[in-house]
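Mods, move this if it's the wrong board.
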Amino acid sequence: MNEATARIKIDTLLEAAGWRFFAGSGKRVFRMKTQLTSHLVNLTFEAALRSFWYKKTLASFLRGSQVPDLPAWLPDESKRDYLSRVFALLQNTDLGKRKVIQLAQFLAEQSSFLDLEGREDSAEKITAAKRAVGALRSYLSKQDAQLASERQKQEARRKFQALQAQTRASQQTLQSLENKLKDLAGKIGSSSVGKAFEEWFYDLTEFSEIMSRRPYKVAGREIDGSISIGDTTYLIECKFTSDQTGAPDIDVFRSKVESKADNTMGVFVSISGYTSVAINEASGKRTPLFLLDHGHLYRVLGEISGFKDVVERARRHASQTGEAHLPVDRF
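Not the wrong board. Structure tokens:
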């Protein structure tokens, strides 16, 4: 076996024993998944002692496991004394500590104890070996569960921190949108504020991750744009005036909506709300319209509801009652 092949075999054994290889800076670094504790050392020692009766078989197991710098067996030295020396030496180096974990993994995988068979007290010795290996296996399983739980906790912390960062960024963006809306309110009545409000509205939908299309013209008729939620397309009409929206504006918008496909509905967004006549005009059996005002927008800006939730709540109310306008105080 050449050096490269031997290195690959050792790496494979270490991986199987609970170690991960990390390459970096030209060095080979192994990072332990299973934690070496004094209790694990004691359990591994006891399992090795109980699993083999003959010194020769025990020595063969240790050599086959590639224990480094395996010492010679002293004359009349017992298995217990020999293993005590071996384990003491192993715990002096990082490689030796890795080997203890590897031995623990190998011993825990045992299902039979051939070295203990064929003796008068085989039943007792095999029972003792199974007890020792079972204790080792149970401890390794418990440690694996603890490490998995810790990884889950770390992942949960990571996700929470990411969510916090996302929330902070979201709040900053919503605050920016709210500041822009307040700035527009100071310009209400000017000729350009209507277009600016349309742009602001689509900035809000983009922030809310809703598919939208900004204002466009169809057959010479100007549409303030549209949004898509689920399988429904909603035509948008925006109005930013100090006066409430009246019935004539509702009539014009309804005709735009009803000229489109059957699954098209309309959302009228009026910053100052609507007259009672306008609300009655928009309402009715199978109405394709529902009406939003500044209260709905500030519900989104205040993070009380998402924009999609506001639209779906208003549509559900319109479907159930025929009322096109559901004030936020009735949400």
